[in-house]
Write a structure and sequence with these properties.
Number of helices: 1
Shape: globular
Structural class: mainly beta
Order of helices and strands: EEEEEEEHE
Strand content: 35-45%
Strand order of the largest sheet: 1-2-8
Helix content: under 10%
Amino acid sequence: MGAYVFSHSIPFHMLKMSHQPIINDLLFTPHSQTTNKYHWNVLFPMSFYLEDHQGNIIKDLNDIIPSTVVISAGVDDTYGVIIRLDYQTLLDSLTDVVCG
């Protein structure tokens, strides 16, 4: 899974993107106890919302700085997960997209 920032108007241009996939140890599992090979799960983001510093869902971004990005995702079409990311840390991790 990655993160992207697009321009506000058509045609939408990608402005920033995550430099590498956003993953953690829970998103891949060992094939067996005796090998170091891993099975990567397929993560399918379904929806997201933003929370303020008190944990309230933000419906309008006017004058509110989000604290947390909450993402619901499916894993291997088997189960769902809720992923919570710090909003500012996520933004700070994105790199500019340079188009020729």
